Amino acid sequence: MTEFVITKRGDIEIGYFPALEQYGVVHGFTLRHHGQSDIVKGALNMALHVGDDRQKVLANRAKVAKALGYRPEKATTCAQVHGNRVVVVTPALVGRGALDYADTIQDTDGLVTEEANVPLMLFYADCVPVMLVDTKSTAFALVHAGWRGAVSKIGAIALQTMEQNFGTRPGNVMAAIGPSIGPCCYEVDENVLKKAPDFKECFAPTGPGHWHLNLWQVNRLQLERAGVPSDHILDSSYCTKDHVEQYFSYRAEQGKTGRMAAVIYRK
Residue 134: beta bridge partners? Predict the structure, then answer.
């Protein structure tokens, strides 16, 4: 089975992992086309925090909700700050940030829940989206793992949050690493290297004081070390910078771009 597939749903393109579908989750990773935006013409920008027209973003979100079969007002989001804080989404938090950025869950980069029909939705333009699905219960998680979140082990923290709140066992978890900047294109300096002592094998030197960082490997290693079997970790292997014709890329577009969304929920 192919790990990652891009397909047409409605009038948009969505990427997904077929292997996750057997566990009762609906999920998708949006691409950049077939939307409306004041930032990038014709773009499916999903984020309210990047200066785009609010009504156009909401129209884009409604289009994705229709394609994935959920109510747009129930999508639950957070104000991502490149940290490692993970929040459990309870009924009181459902729909936060769905229609108005002002009420999104603050200072958070990971969401965990076991609520049915509650889509978790986070935003990316090179950073790594990671989904975690408990195959033996109804718990699942979504995290935003740029280099700061990744080296501070947000994936492992989300896994621990699932374990503490819902009894998740790491050996029962399927993980999926979505499209994001790849080791081919992500060059960092010594400041990043010094902050990642547990992941030195993920750096490849490119010149004096510079390295390529493999964020996919950083996220994979922390999940494996936390007990997720290596063959339970799926990887799209799509580099957003290399494929800027399909995806938004903060680096390729010098920060003037939209955001894709990763969405996951249980029926």
Answer: 173
Q: How many Å from the N-terminal Cα to the C-terminal Cα in the chain? A: 23
pLDDT tens digits, one per residue of 99-151: 999 999 999 999 999 999 999 999 999 999 999 999 999 999 999 999 999 99
Superfamily for domain range 5-180+229-266 = CNF1/YfiH-like putative cysteine hydrolases (3.60.140.10)
Task: Count how many Cα atoms sit within 13 Å of the Cα of residue 175 in the half-sphere of its side chain.
Answer: 30
d(CA 13, CA 239): 17
Helix axes 154-166, 215-225, angle to 10 degrees: 30
d(CA 214, CA 206): 13
Nearest to 259 by CA among 66, 105, 48: 48
**Measured in whole angstroms, how far is the alpha carbon of residue 233 from the centre of its chain?**
14
Give the distance, in angstroms, between the CA of residue 230 and the centroid of all CA atoms in the same chain.
19
Q: Is 141 exposed, middle or buried (0-12, 13-18, 19+ CB in 10 A)?
A: buried
Phi first, then psi, for residue 160 (nearest 5°) are: -65, -40
Contacts of 243 (CB under 8 A, 6+ apart): 179
